[in-house]
Amino acid sequence: MHDGSGRIAVQNLSKQFGAVNAVQNLSFTVEPGSVTGFLGPNGAGKTTTLRMLLGLVTPTNGTATINGRPHDQLGNPARVVGSVLENEGFHPGRTARNHLRVYSAAIGMPDQRVDEVLGLVGLSSAADRKAGGFSLGMRQRLALATALLGNPQVLVLDEPTNGLDPEGILWLRNFLRAYAREGRTVLVSSHLLNEVEQTIDQVVIISQGMTRYNGSLDQLRKSNQSRVLVQSADASGLVSALQEAGITQVSPMPDGRVAVSGATVQQIGDVSAKASIAVYGMQEETADLERMFFQLTQGQYAAPPPGFQQGPPPGYQGPPPGYQGPPPGYQGPPPGYAPQNTPPPGFAPPQQFQQQGQQPQQPQYQQAPPQQQAQQQGQNEGWGGQG
Amino acid sequence: MGNLIKAEFRKTLTLKAWWALMIPAVVFAFAFALFWGMVTNDFSDFLGRSDTRELTEALGISTGELPVGLLALGHGINIGTMIPIIFGVFALAGEYTKKTITTTFLTAPNRVSALSAKMITYIAWGAIYGVIIVAAASLGTVITVDSQRLPTAGQWLGVLGAGVLATILATLFGIGVGAVWRSVVGSIITLTIWMLVVENVLVFVMFGAADITWLGGVLPNGTVNGIVGAIGAEAFGAAGVKVPGLQDETAWALQYAAGAPGAFSWWASALIFFGWTMIFFLAGWAVNQKKDIT
């Protein structure tokens, strides 16, 4: 029987669907007592991984265990792990209460548990309505109620915020954090970091079916260093001058500027003055978590926009702690993402950057489409000369 | 396992299909028995005077004593059996269509137990349908068939047993086809057309064109019908035991009148249909044991 640890362990997990490698040699563990985010772009293999963990999909290779056991050896699995998968699993003609009564019977829970979980997710008043008439948000709540029926030690949720309004997201966030505080395990997947950023403590980032980062969110946050973008008369001259001065984290950018990390604006100004290289503008850029996420996952998409440099973004200082290797086959950002180092045409220095920087904890409810996000991100980086 | 069976019953009872399908089962079984009872009550008109004499002489009874009620029962039950097949399709294919299969597998210890619970539950449902269908067909029969031509109590019990066996197997057959195909609509349409049209045409054409009398005795519809139908055919000496002097064509016509053209005997039909059921059921089981639920 299972060890009761509440630990999720994924080891060398791979899944091939025909010619498609949905998941490749994925490994990570999820510990109890915290909410772990499982992040990656759409199509990164998140859902397939979760379904392998839940015994719905058979792995091609490797293992996915909960409490040291694969799903079909957990005994009464729904008493160990509850799951919310992408809004499915309800017969439209069955009422919410009857749906729960079916599965409470299957896992041997008393019928009163049905009313408890309906209350927990705030569906008591809709209990006798048919699930077919539920909104997306209500279906998500019903899915969560189903997951909670067995009072499980482990919760696995696949994109649970889909269809939830801001209030619902906030409610879910508090619920999951409270659940984890009881020493239980919560694994929640999302394709948007900012949607779960306030919820999670740990994060597993995957892209193209491989682990890109596995560690604490704080560590990932700390690993982001600021950099200075320098517009100068002689980019290559500036690079060598900086390197001679011992500032080695320097890389030229496609637009002719130089990205410098590990040095202040003053230091760079001194070096350029000494080397007699005119500087037309300098600008400090603080990398945020979202950009980090993009950098870790953007290898997913194959076709770069014309002129976009192949390879890691300039000024990128190497992997954060816990980063499991460079994204192989990294080819550029997804179509529709503006290259991160090129300002949008006609862009004026925005005010939002300061505000954002001062209020990093402000919850972001809105789910912006990728393009919009990339632009917001560009704005956050604060383009525009300072010198 | 008890929990899962309870869950399966709740699954069915919280939806309408089980009683909604009961309506056509009762109506068809009753109406067909009523009609065939009416047609066969005056048996000599139905079969022709010389054939009837040939038969009654061979059986050593008078025309008025032929248990034609069995023929009415057979037809009523046979048409009714179509409904448990459709009901069975919903068992697994319905879960795939509505995607409830995900939750079903997530809440069961493993797939073997989930599928076993389903099988046991649907055997019970098949039996319930069987009793209802036999009752409806019996009602249609007693209304139209003269009392001296009704089957004996023993024959009736035999029909009840065979009817329940047929509907149980029919339900499992439906589950199997649905499990292999995982489409409710596709399975139901194909099964209905095959069972009610294609196979009957095939059996007729092969009999008419090539004198092949046994085809109905081996195909799915013929064999499931033969379980009950052959009891009637046997009572007329047209299946199981061979009445000396009875021509092949007459025997086939009698089998047809009983709803079981080509049937060898009730138990042979049962065995062969059990084989058909197992082919689909085991194939469906194998598919679902490994199938990725994506």
Helix content class of chain A: 25-40%
> What Rg of chain A, in angstroms, do the CA atoms define?
24 Å
Shape of chain B: elongated
Which class of secondary structure composition applies to the elements of chain A? alpha/beta
Number of helices of chain B: 13
Overall strand count of chain A: 13
Q: Quick one: how many beta strands of chain B?
A: 0
Give the CA-based shape of chain A: elongated
Helix content of chain B: over 70%
Mean pLDDT of chain B: 88
Question: Which spans of chain A have pLDDT < 50 for at least 5 consecutive residues?
Answer: 300-387
How many individual helices of chain A?
A: 12
Reported for the largest beta sheet of chain B, the result is:
none
Strand content of chain A: 15-25%
Oligomer: heterodimer
Name a few traits of the molecule.
heterodimer; A: 387 residues; alpha/beta; six-stranded mixed beta sheet; four-stranded antiparallel beta sheet; 13 strands; B: 294 residues; mainly alpha; 78% helix; elongated
Describe the structure.
The complex is a heterodimer of chains A (387) and B (294). Chain A is α/β, with parallel strands linked by helices and 387 residues long. Chain A contains 12 helices and 13 strands. A 6-stranded mixed β-sheet of chain A has the order 5-6-7-3-8-9, with helices on both faces. Chain A has a 4-stranded antiparallel β-sheet with strand order 11-12-10-13, with helices on one face. In chain A, strand 6, helix 5 (166-181) and strand 7 form a beta-alpha-beta unit. In chain A, helix 2 (96-106) crosses helix 3 and helix 3 crosses helix 4. Chain A is elongated, with a radius of gyration of 24 Å. Chain B has 294 residues and is mostly helical. In chain B, 78% of the residues lie in helices and 0% in strands. Chain B contains 13 helices and no strands. Chain B has helices spanning 2-13, 17-20, 22-41, 43-47, 49-59, 69-97, 101-106, 111-144, 153-181, 184-210, 220-235, 248-257, 266-290. In chain B, helix 3 (22-41) runs antiparallel to helix 6 and helix 9 (153-181) packs across helix 10. The longest helix of chain B has 34 residues, at 111-144. Chain B starts with a helix and ends with a helix. The mean pLDDT of chain B is 88. Chains A and B meet through helix 1 and helix 2 of A and helix 1 and helix 7 of B.
